[in-house]
Q: What sequence folds into this?
């Protein structure tokens, strides 16, 4: 639990001066930044939550309503439900319904010409051309197969030709993760729309044998996986169904594409990054935007020069048993004074530009913290842009609620805020990213200089794989900064951060003074801006 926070801001006397500085900086920065927004996949994990047997029955009813204009009978349910997801995919069922005597009699009017016409109208939504009609009739006449088998051939050809998918929900790829013995350890289905953690499940079978295991869902991404209880050999046809409950019908994505097999992932036996961030080190960061020097000390140089400066700053915080380790805290989504093309009043950075700084930092043994100023966007959406970079072992994440605007607010005109629920949504995603990818613990920072900036802060959760830090972010005189820190500081399992403003602070605290804080906790993260 967090300690109680007063509802009075200790920095309110300096509010107008602070915002005058920030507004001037925003106006200058927004005229110099032209950073292209990058879209990044969006993950999180959860267990499946609904009954696949019910989903299959509803899906069969939907097929009959689509093709026969009625619900399936109990006998038709009994015919298809046991095999759906075991030996048959959804289009297999559609083909058999289209080839059935019931369709031939009730919809096609018992004639071959009527059958071809009805088939095209149901599958393509149009009557056949004269050429298509004649070819279809000839195919029904000339084959040596039974009439039902001939109808099935024609129906399946048409379904395949038009990639029939009335739900608009399909599997684009199946990726098989294997171990060193070549056995499958994960079936990962890539689907063609973002999904959420509460409305999807799946079934997987190999050669008619249903696989048991754990369903994992990358929420808001496009991946749903089955991790089998035991690694399995690929022996025969894989049939997979992804069930999406969209609030109405149950939709099914069929496995209709070849599987791609991934080799076993090689995990280094020893990582240079500690499994716990603050076990024997204190982090000292330079803060700013990597393009503009107007937003902090970090932007005053390139990455190579910044390494030397932050290492020297970190060394001044060395203590017996706890060294100072340098970091870059980079503002990657930057709040701006104008709405921009998307109306969000923020600019996301190009991933390749940020990656250059991360490459240098990793080589030099430094951390990188990606700082988010979302404007009218939200922290979750903006954080997802940088998933690829957050997979790096030395990269953490910071949320800056000052720049989290409401739908009618503008950066620089008001102090923003964030709810504990939004913070928890981001931390859950980041925690699961760490766990799923066997990454070392990451810093997860929330900046604060007024109590109202984090609503219901006592509800913020500590997540596995994250070192969650509340960062005291006010500038001014020493007494004002310490009053802010006395209210905002947190207790374990959370960590504390403290920002030093090189130009704005009055008599900025020196390293030995910060290390001597008492009775307040000595900060675990110190940031220079």
A:
């Amino acid at each position: 639990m967090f300690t109680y926070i007063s509802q009075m801001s200790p920095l309110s006397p300096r509010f107008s001066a602070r915002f005058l500085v920030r507004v001037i900086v925003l106006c200058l920065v927004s005229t110099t930044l032209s950073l292209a927004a990058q879209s990044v996949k969006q993950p999180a994990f959860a267990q499946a939550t609904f009954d696949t047997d019910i989903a299959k029955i509803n899906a069969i009813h939907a097929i009959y309503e689509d093709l026969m204009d009625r619900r399936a009978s109990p006998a038709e349910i009994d015919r298809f439900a046991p095999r759906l997801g075991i030996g048959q995919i959804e289009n297999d069922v559609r083909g058999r319904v289209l080839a059935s005597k019931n369709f031939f009699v009730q919809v096609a009017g018992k004639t071959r010409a009527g059958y071809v016409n009805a088939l095209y109208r149901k599958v393509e939504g149009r009557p056949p051309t004269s050429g298509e009609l004649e070819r279809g009739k000839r195919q029904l006449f000339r084959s040596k197969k039974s009439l039902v088998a001939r109808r099935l051939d024609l129906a399946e050809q048409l379904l395949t030709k038009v990639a029939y998918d009335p739900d608009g929900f399909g599997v684009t790829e199946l990726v098989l993760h294997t171990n060193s013995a070549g056995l499958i350890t994960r079936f990962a289905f890539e689907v063609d729309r973002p999904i959420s953690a509460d409305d999807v499940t799946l079934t997987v079978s190999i050669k008619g044998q249903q696989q048991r295991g754990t369903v994992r869902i990358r929420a808001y991404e496009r991946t749903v996986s089955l991790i089998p209880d035991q690694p399995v050999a690929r022996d025969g046809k894989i049939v997979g169904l992804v069930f999406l409950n969209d609030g109405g019908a149950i939709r099914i994505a069929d496995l209709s594409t070849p599987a791609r097999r991934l080799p076993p992932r090689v995990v280094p036996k020893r990582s240079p990054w500690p499994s716990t961030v603050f076990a024997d080190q204190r982090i000292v960061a330079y803060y700013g935007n990597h393009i503009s020097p107007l937003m902090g000390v970090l932007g005053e140089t390139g990455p190579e020069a910044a390494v030397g400066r932050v290492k020297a700053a970190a060394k001044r915080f060395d203590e017996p048993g706890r060294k100072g380790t340098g970091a870059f805290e980079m503002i990657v989504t930057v709040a701006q004074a104008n709405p921009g093309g998307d109306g969000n009043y923020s600019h996301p950075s190009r991933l390749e530009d940020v990656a250059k700084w991360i490459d240098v930092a990793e080589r030099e043994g430094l951390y990188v913290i990606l700082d988010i100023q979302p404007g009218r966007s939200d922290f979750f959406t903006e954080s997802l842009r940088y998933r690829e970079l957050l997979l790096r072992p030395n990269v953490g994440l910071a949320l800056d609620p000052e720049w989290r605007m409401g739908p009618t607010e503008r950066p620089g005109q008001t102090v923003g805020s964030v709810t504990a629920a939004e913070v928890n949504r981001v931390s859950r995603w980041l925690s699961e990213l760490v766990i799923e990818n066997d990454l070392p613990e990451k810093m997860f920072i929330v900046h604060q200089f007024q109590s109202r900036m984090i609503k219901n802060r006592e509800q913020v959760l500590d997540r596995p794989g994250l070192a969650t830090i509340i960062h005291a972010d006010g500038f001014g005189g020493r007494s004002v900064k310490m009053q802010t820190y006395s209210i905002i500081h947190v207790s374990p399992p959370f960590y504390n951060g403290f920002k030093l403003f090189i130009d704005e602070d009055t008599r900025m605290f020196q390293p030995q003074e910060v290390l001597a804080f008492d009775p307040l906790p000595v900060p675990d993260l110190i940031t220079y801006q």
